[in-house]
Amino acid sequence: MERIRTILAAFFIISTVFIAGCSDNSGNKAQSEQQNGQITTNDQAKNEKESSDKKNIKQVKATVYFPDENGQKLIASDRTLNTEVDDKYLAAVKVLLQGPKKGEGIAVIPKQAKLLAVSVDKNGIASVNFDNALVKNFSGGSTGEIMLVGSVTDTLTNFPEVKAVRFLVDGKPLATLSGHLDLTEPVKRMKNIL
């Protein structure tokens, strides 16, 4: 009888250890699944936030300026700039190159002109670099020159961090477009034609 009790006691101890081990594993499994679910949820929320932030960065609202048909003033046009590839400065000048929508004025930058770069330094001076086609194909007189320079300058200085605009052709400073405006110094906002 003593032997049966010993066997039963040993069986009871082994069963208890086995059951305790199984329930501990299922508890760990449940806890692990809960943690994995939480990690998945946290990762998903993080990815959604990053995606939302990227969408916000890709589009910027800005005002660009085109000359009116009489060449007397600039017409403001609100645009949404796609900044997925270009920064907002380059994107804004590209809008000027594309030209105005109906009723927004006229295009003043020669269609043949290529925009090479736009950069803004720590002093708030934007440098706009066109290829030589800007000068070669510009056919306007003094009014056209004022409107072109004003269109680019007032578009870029509408960004609060930009204080003035320097014009370059093929990376070299442009002294004048057609002999009417001195462009040797950066041009400040031209409020008189707004």
From TrEMBL:
PROSITE patterns documented for this protein: PROKAR_LIPOPROTEIN
Region annotation Disordered: where it falls in the sequence: 26-55
Domain GerMN stretches: 89-178
A Pfam family this chain is assigned to: Germane
Keywords: Signal
UniProt-listed SMART domains: Germane
Composition skew (Polar residues), residue ranges: 26-44
Bilayer-crossing regions: none
Keyword Signal: yes
Annotated signal sequence range: 1-20
InterPro entries in UniProt: GerMN
Biased composition (Basic and acidic residues): 45-55
Protein name per Swiss-Prot or TrEMBL: Spore germination protein GerM
Organism: Pectinatus haikarae
